[in-house]
Please model this.
Amino acid sequence: MKSQADSDVSLRRLASAIALGAAVVLIVAKLWGWMATDSVALLTSAADAVVDALAAAATFFGVRFAQHPADLEHRFGHGKGEALAAFTQAILLAGTAAVLAAQSCWRLVYPQHLTAVTLGIWIAAGGLATSSLLATMQTWVVRRTGSTAIAADRAHYLMDAVLNGAVLVALALASMTGWERADPLAALIIAGCMIAGARRIAETASRQLLDHELPHEHRERIKAAAVGCVGIRGVHDLRTRDAGDRVFVEFHLEVDGHVSVREGHSMVDAAERAVAGLFSKETEVIGHLEPAGIEDERLDDRVRRPRRR
Model:
């Protein structure tokens, strides 16, 4: 009999397989619709689907690379592989959106008559229905399994439903009113959404790639956990970073100068364990022991100095 954990794994795999199959079907259908109708909105929607499929492949390999353990040449592990894959996605998405936005602007200035609009409407309606059903299915899977990956994919399909709706409205307007600029206007909106999505992805990835500090509240919790340990009188030169698959924390711990090396080592171990217990993901904590009250150059002082221009 399958355990709950095995059942959740199977459910995640099934959900991801269904989503991938649906993505391929949507790409083929939208490309067919674009060739039949010459709708730039359908082309933009198809390009978004293609980029998403390529991005999913980049994420797949990036996540696998990030899971590799530390080795002689990567002693901090390979966690940034996932962020690098995400940044690649952002560049790909933004570049594609920029080209499509330029094409949309051209069509706004020089509108073009659409053909086989009814076919395009059916394809857009099918895309809207498929994206909505996938998002509903993934919502159920996320509630059952708590999968972060499926939750991210669900957000993507919710956005896809909105974009397919925009294409549907544009084609319907073009069909009923003959307003040819509705199609490139919808395409321009979709391209704008793609660029906004690329920016969000790039911002998140760059925080990891550039070793951005953890949020202020996390840093305060780290300090409180360390100072709460027996013998620790203070904490300074705290450095943190999120490497994707794990968190790195380094700090200097101040203790009474008369404690022995053995006692000090035990205090540092206790502080490191307390800090590691604050995070749900794997956390590597390094504490440097020093006597309280000494005067030396500190990182805290250097980062507070005004930057030279």
The first helix runs from residue 4 to 37. The radius of gyration is 26 Å. DSSP finds nine helices and three strands in the chain. The mean pLDDT is 80.
